[in-house]
Amino acid sequence: MLMTEYGGAPCSDLYIIPETSMYHKLERILPNVRKPARYTGGEYNQIIKNPDETEIRVALCFPDIYDIGMSNLGMRILYGVINKMPGVWCERVFEPWSDMAAALRENNIPLYGLESGDPIKDFDMLGFSVGYELSYPGILNILDLAGIPLKSRDRTGLAPIIFAGGTCMYNPEPLADFIDIAVIGEGEELDLELIELYRRAKRANWSKERFLAEAAGIDGVYVPSLYHVEYNEDKTIKSITPKKPAPPVVKKRIVQELDKSWFPVDTIVPSTEIVHDRTVLELFRGCIRGCRFCQAGYVYRPVRSKSREVLVKQAADALENSGYQELNLASLSTSDYRELGALCDDLLDWCEPRNISLSLPSLRADNFSMELLDRVQRVRKSGLTFAPEAGSQRLRDVINKNVTEEDILSACRTAFAGGYNAVKLYFMIGLPTETDEDILGIVTLAKKVLGVFKESAKNKNRGVRITVSTSCFVPKPMTPFQWEKQDTPEEFERKQQLIKDNLRTRAIHYSWHNPQVSLIEAVLARGDRRTGAVLEAVYKKSGGLQAWDECFSYDAWRSAFEEIGINPSFYAHRERSYDEILPWSVISAGINKEHLIRESKLAKQGKTTPDCRQRCSGCGANSLMKGLSCDG
Ligand code: SF4
Questions:
Q1: If you average pLDDT over residues 507-518, what whole number do you get?
Q2: Cβ(303) to ligand 1 under 6 A?
Q3: Ligand 1 atom closest to Cα of 619?
Q4: CA 613 / ligand 1 centre spacing (Å)
Q5: ω before 302 within 30° of 0 (cis)?
Q6: 616 touches ligand 1 (CB under 6 Å)
Q7: Is the CB of 301 under 6 A from ligand 1?
Q8: How far apart are the CA of 623 and the centre of ligand 1, in A?
Q9: Got the DSSP string for 10-30?
Q10: pTM of the predicted model, to two decimals?
């Protein structure tokens, strides 16, 4: 909003944001809040348009703070592609931290777009990017701070239309009362089609109902209000009936060729530090592995890669235009990129002379190599992370991790011999069929890694730091484990204590997730639209920012469940039968139900499925590819 330039061109040539009274009010409150730069806009490469020449105003909203939202690649891509539409201005909105939210309320300042400072309640559309269930109250917080009615039915006019995208929309039902539309799958093309339809509606002065009915005709658009849900005595779903013209099933949308899709090379450079303060290069989408708990691994299928040439060009342009000193090679399983070694060489030829470092997300232990790591860390060394997920081979086979204990130990041996003194090991507890033996397997494996350090480390005298981190298993829609039950918080705490009691060595540090948070995540991940009332009650009791430990209030959730008469165990701790109608049954990620059932049964037998490169296991995702094959 503190406008200086537009994409490098001085603003005076284009448009100056007027100094409004809201501007002066902000000047008074910003000095009193944490990290005021979160609320000012004015960053390098932000996009400013002249409102008088703009037909459609879109607010791209992230239901968490600036530091998190600005690190989200999806937000950057959508911001860029929407702003490429003529006559459409897309602005960013993040959930303010509690101090700023209070100041906005005290000063009657409605939440505004970062670029213009204009109240988003006057915008045409608000699009939410939703990737984590605990951020749902944040959506209500943004609507409330903007002065927009929370419920879809209470917003009767054509504006503002509230739509939401992101992986959480594979079960949008807990948000059904609050959003008008869920966009299923990748938004690069889908969101533009929806906004174009809105432009037609606005020009023709359609009613909201007419717009929603027309929107339901776009592949990938789910309009909750056009589906009627009935329940059985036992509270399970009896039927989900579409009202014309809504389709019986809404299938996700994907970008066919990533090489041709838009990538943010002139991305905004934040004025304050954010969580991932670097250039992020997306190598491919989808994953060949098929880990049975992993929602992202399934919903981003089919696997589609970018070519080396395109990646090197995008990296150079993005680094040149941002000045970042780190390039992160992102995907769900980066070490599976076919030409990773050659790509790293090409990138290092460009990065090394400019002292720019490459970084990799957690690596799979089964295709880890020192040669690769040495390449990547020539500029700057950073810690190593492996994700065995389960402590025993039996349980790793149940979840189809396809990593052996020897893979993990030899990867650590290689790393320690190569001079590394720190390694993080990620595990999950509460997995289907898990026993205490599997839990103690985590302790045994961590101690074996310590043993490997003692026998093979290059710098033994510097000591070692092994971090074991356990998250709590949350059964997610669109995975083979979508029918499984979750452990109770008490059971999770018992298993965490078992690890603590047996992991008593100073070289191994243990961190664990809060089981109460994971319970709420599980309720919302598989909740039906009746859980929406709980969301509203929690928001009224405890506000937004529930993804933050210091703001999360388990008491608020518990009393909301009681108040609304919702039993969280019904959603989290109950195994479903394969023929139960699930709340997300009208949504399709392109993965066959038969495939998910087959994988679920193989899991119970402790049998693995080879990855897509070894053999296509027929998940069905390739049916989404038009004339192209999965790049398994
Ligand atoms: S269709 Fe086959 S190759 Fe493609 S993602 Fe599914 S299992 Fe893998």
A1: 97
A2: yes
A3: 6
A4: 9
A5: yes
A6: yes
A7: yes
A8: 9
A9: EGGGT------HHHHHHHHHG
A10: 0.95
User: If you measure from the C-alpha of residue 287 to the centroid of ligand 1, how many angstroms do you get, rounded to a whole number?
Assistant: 9
Structure tokens given for 536: 């509203």
pLDDT tens digits, one per residue of 438-460: 999 999 999 999 999 999 887 78
- The pairing of strands 56-62 and 125-129 is parallel
At residue 608 the predicted structure's pLDDT band, cuts being 50, 70 and 90, is very high
Domain residue limits, the chain: 2-7+39-251, 278-513+591-625
The residue to which tokens 């799979």 are assigned: 364
The token duo for 610 is: 């080879």
Q: Once rounded to an integer, what is the mean pLDDT over residues 220-242?
A: 98
How far, in Å, from the CA of 58 to the mean position of ligand 1? 36
According to DSSP, the β-strands at 508-512 and 465-472 are: parallel
Residues 249-257 have a mean pLDDT of 96
Does the CB atom of residue 621 touch ligand 1 within 6 A? Answer: yes
CA distance 324 to 321: 8
Which ligand 1 atom is nearest residue 591's CA? 6
Whose CA is closest to atom 5 on ligand 1? 302
DSSP 351-393: HGGGTPEEE--PBPGGG--HHHHHHHTSS----EEEEEESSSH
Collect all residues with Cβ–Cβ distance below 8 Å to 573 and sequence separation of at least 6.
485, 486, 487, 488
User: What pLDDT, on the 0 to 100 scale, is given for residue 5?
Assistant: 45
How far apart are the C-alpha atoms of 17 and 27, rounded to whole Å? 15
Domain 278-513+591-625, what fold?
pyruvate-formate lyase- activating enzyme (3.80.30)
Q: How far is CA 512 from the centre of its chain?
A: 20
DSSP label at residue 253: B
Pocket test for ligand 1, best of 303, 304, 400, 592 (most atoms within 8 A of CB): 303
58 has which bridge partners? 90, 125
Cβ(270)–Cβ(46) below 8 Å = no
Query: H or E segment at 326?
Result: strand 326-330
Q: Which two tokens stand for residue 335?
A: 């070490």
Helix, strand and coil content of the chain, in percent to the nearest 5, comes to 40, 15, 40
**pLDDT for res 370:** 66
Ligand 1 neighbour 287 (Cβ under 6 A):
no
Cα separation of the two ends of the chain: 45
**Residue minimizing CA distance to atom 2 of ligand 1:** 616
- Count of all residues that appear for the chain in the document: 632
3-state SS, residue 25: helix
- Architecture category of domain 2-7+39-251 in CATH: 3-Layer(aba) Sandwich (3.40)
